[in-house]
Amino acid sequence: xxxxxxxxxxxxxxxxxxVLLVISDSxxxxxxxxxxxxxxxxxxAVVLVQYIVDMEPIPPMVSVEEEKRFFSxxxxxxxxxxxxxxxxxxxxxxxxxxxxxxxxxxxxxVLRAEKTLKPDVIIVGCRKSPLKGLSKGLAEKIVAExxxxxxxxx
Length: 154
What we know:
It is a single chain. With about 150 residues, this protein is an alpha/beta fold. The chain has a single domain (about 1-154), classed as Rossmann fold, CATH 3.40.50. It is about 40% helix and about 25% strand. The longest helix is centred in the middle third of the chain and has 28 residues, at about 65-90. This is UspA domain-containing protein.
């Protein structure tokens, strides 16, 4: 498991809503389009962008060098996706902030972020139909466990 947190800790005014946007390499820019519409429909919010890759731990038989190279490539790919999403959101006038990147058990990390960031809504991108996506996937786990309302965006 690898987690990268943002170094920025700009305070979010109490009167603004917090949207935790959970993206992956397959849902990033598509879901950003929908978030723009959601936020611009009168929902004064700060969008907190979290990049997640749901994966099992790397087996111990993988060399340290291979593991470092693998995670370096994953972080770079994630950085590019996060930059595109934040650029899309900010170009549309949405206050968007990067809050973290995680490679590991995704639903557990989203639930940890829920506790620390205290969002008003969690938006999870989903490649498939939202109903198909609820079959034992990340979205289903988050919907079942989160205390915060969850919006699944295709």
